[in-house]
Amino acid sequence: MADIAGLHAFSETPERDVARFFAGREAFLDHIKKACEGAAHTIAEGGKIISATRLFYGARGAGKTSLLTEFHVHAARGNFGTPAPVIVDLPSSQSLRREEDVILQIAEALGKDSLFRTTTHSDARVNADIPVIGGGGVTKGQVQNPPAATFFHLKQITKTLSPRRPILLCVDEIQNMNPEAKDIMDILQQGKHGLPIIPIYAGLGNSLNVIMRHGVSRPVSGYIHGVEALASTEAEAAVTAMLDRFKVDQSGADRDWPATLAQRADCWPQHLHNAMRALAMELIRRDVKGVLARVNPEAVFTHERRLRMLAHGWRMSEMISDHRELAARVMQRVVASTPTRSEVKQIIAVLHKTRSCTLTEGVSVNSFFNELLHQGLLQEFHEERADGTIVDVLRCPIPSLATFVMERGRVDSSLPLPELAAEPPLKEAPEEEGGDPYASPESKPPSYEDADPSKIS
Ligand SMILES: Nc1ncnc2c1ncn2[C@@H]1O[C@H](COP(=O)(O)OP(=O)(O)OP(=O)(O)O)[C@@H](O)[C@H]1O
Ligand SMILES: [Mg+2]
Q1: pTM over 0.90
Q2: Which atom of ligand 1 is nearest to the CA of 18?
Q3: Do the domain assignments include residue 48?
Q4: How far from 250 is each of 240, 242, 263, 279, 297, CA to CA, in Å?
Q5: CB atoms within 10 A of CB 3
Q6: Non-local CB neighbours of 164 within 8 Å, separated by 6+ positions
């Protein structure tokens, strides 16, 4: 018997629920596993963890938050090595502003007991029963002003606990970072705290831009990962896991539902989740009762399309809506070829000269380009050319989104492609968006090579 109640609850989950049927991302999980092992090894050798920051960036719905959540599952299963890392989720990028807040979160994740392990602390006023960190609930041997928590205190605590446990410090939505977070982010990147902390940031496609705009040292080459669509086998595996989990009767179904949903969703995690919800909506009907062969495919597709269009609609910010045709023409060009960052900016600059695509006052080529990146209409991919060089090209990460934007801007493939100007690539002065962090040769984009644990010294 199918689990109708379970299917019902699943059909009503929000469109960005944490992945219940997590699939794929093995390379990322392996990368973190190696990072943990490398950190544990370095600590055992008495070394310091430096330049350990990782960045996962991707458009909305790519599965960044789900990936961070999956770290807990992997650590609990022992897949991140022994001892398992301590995982600390900072509620939002805003919490990187104060050292004490970061310390308190880590201390809490280490276990409440740790708050009271202060015997090694050198401050003579503090006796063994008084928490050094924080200050709430202090009674015995009261200290008037408990010292503010610092990385130094945390180090004392971790010494007496499990000194080799790496700490994964995960911060989501890093694109919203506060400028005041710079100092702590630099301390973390430079390993000045002497602790086994591996900072892991996740955020939208402009995250690296934002980090660099605030003057934070950027993660090293190979530690910056674009989160993209799933492979079709992975997307299909998620659907299969869902059908199995809800004990759906799959006998006699005349269609390969995992393949169908994966394809309709462009293997994009957010759309895939919605496609599974659409199927669940039909499976719970009284005349269907969890039997796949009784499902009306057209009804599933109608739900799925509605949810997908809604999700696309959310990406159409005011700036993009004000420049529908321009966005559509850029998308037309991006779909036809895979231009580089400066080529896309050039295309925008050239289109801007035509009347129907003019940028409105206050919107520059750079800011429009960044908006396309921010909303996930464009994503940067590192592509290896035949000669072995790696170039960064831009694509729309979701094919159906490109079609949506073109339809919205009334641009179809019969229109001639916007041409690149015969001029040299556009050079713009850095402006409100901080310019292009890849512009100078020394800040070339990192290659998409795998993590090299030896980089953790
Ligand atoms: N690896 C995965 N396997 C299966 N489903 C996934 C996977 N990753 C994410 N999903 C599903 O995709 C949807 C979007 O995921 P998630 O919220 O993690 O994306 P995000 O990148 O954090 O988006 P945003 O930028 O909007 O915060 C969720 O409903 C989730 O269930
Ligand atoms: Mg998220």
Answers
A1: no
A2: 31
A3: yes
A4: 10, 12, 19, 13, 14
A5: 16
A6: 40, 43, 44, 83, 196
Domain match, 249 and 305 both: yes
Contact 425, 346 (CB under 8 A): yes
Does residue 118 line the site of ligand 1, with CB under 6 A?
A: no
Domain presence at residue 448: no
* Domain span holding position 306: 4-13+230-314
Do 30 and 126 share a domain, yes or no?
yes
DSSP 285: S
Distance (Å) from CA 21 to ligand 2 centroid? 16
Query: Which ligand 1 atom is nearest residue 25's CA?
Result: 1
Task: Kindly identify the ligand whose nearest atom is closest to the C-alpha of 60.
Answer: 1
Residues 383 and 286 in one domain: no
Q: Is 64 in the pocket of ligand 1 (CB under 6 A)?
A: yes
CA-to-CA separations, 37 to 80, 85, 218, 417, 457, in angstroms, rounded: 8, 9, 22, 50, 12
Which atom of ligand 1 lies closest to the CA of 69?
18
Inside any domain, residue 208: yes
Does residue 424 share a domain with residue 326?
A: yes
Q: Could you tell me if residue 417 is inside a domain?
A: yes
Tens-digit pLDDT string for the chain (457 aa): 899 999 999 999 887 778 899 999 999 999 999 999 888 888 778 778 888 999 999 888 999 999 999 999 999 999 998 788 999 998 777 778 888 788 878 877 877 544 444 433 444 334 434 344 444 444 444 444 445 667 777 776 666 555 568 899 999 999 889 888 998 999 889 887 778 899 999 998 888 888 888 999 888 878 999 899 999 999 999 999 999 999 999 998 889 999 999 999 999 999 999 999 999 999 999 999 999 999 999 999 999 999 999 999 988 999 999 999 999 999 999 988 888 888 999 999 999 988 888 999 999 999 999 899 888 899 887 666 778 776 778 999 888 899 999 998 887 767 676 766 555 555 544 434 433 333 333 333 333 223 333 333 2
